Amino acid sequence: MTDPETLRTIAPSLPVDKELVLRVIPMPGDTNSNGDIFGGWVMAQVDLAGSVLPARISQGRVATVAVKEFIFKQPVRVGDILSFFARVNRVGNTSVTVDVEVFAERMSLQGQHIKVTEATLTYVAIDDQGHSRAIPKKDAKKA
């Protein structure tokens, strides 16, 4: 039987307003002492997934400068298929803020997707020396 909290987070469908930027299956080596996936591992994956769109927009390297919000809604289990979706929230002169949602596909729930994590992160564009740099402006004729 599925508990009420899990039922609340079961998604009728995956987000269509965000881009799939990463998909991964956690392994037994990623667990904590309770047998769930270690929260730090999930945070690292969110950080990687969140950097995809800022790297594209800035056309180069980015570094995480802020985690504005990070919510663990449900535990992640070994064997879950995790899908990471991102959407650009804001583009500044040197930084990009993104929203990331993580969904777990659980075979025990017959392939249903459960939102397990959501976060808002900010990345800054950096040059080869690690200093912040301006994000290229889109060509007005191409926009």
Topology of this protein?
Layout: H1 4-9, E1 10-11, E2 19-24, H2 39-58, E3 62-72, E4 81-91, E5 95-106, E6 112-125
Antiparallel strand pairs: 1-6, 2-4, 3-6, 4-5, 5-6
CATH architecture: Roll
In sequence order, what are the helices and strands, one letter per element?
A: HEEHEEEE
CATH evolutionary superfamily:
Hotdog Thioesterase
User: Helix/strand/pairing class, anyone?
Assistant: alpha+beta
Q: Distance N terminus to C terminus? A: 51 Å
Please, how many helices?
A: 2
Instruction: State which percent range the strand residues make up.
Output: 35-45%
By CATH, the topology is Thiol Ester Dehydrase, Chain A
Tally of discrete structural domains = 1
Shape: elongated
Task: Note poorly predicted spans.
Answer: 139-143
Give the biggest sheet.
Answer: 6 strands, antiparallel
Kindly provide the name of the CATH class: Alpha Beta
Please, what is the average pLDDT?
Answer: 90
Helix content: 10-25%
Structure, described:
By secondary structure, this protein is an alpha+beta fold. The protein has one domain (4-125): Roll (Thiol Ester Dehydrase, Chain A). The chain has two helices and six strands, in the order αββαββββ. It has helices at 4-9, 39-58; strands at 10-11, 19-24, 62-72, 81-91, 95-106, 112-125. Strands 1, 2, 3, 4, 5 and 6 form a six-stranded antiparallel sheet that branches. Strand 5 and strand 6 (112-125) form a beta hairpin. The chain is elongated. The chain starts with a helix and ends in an 18-residue tail after the last strand.
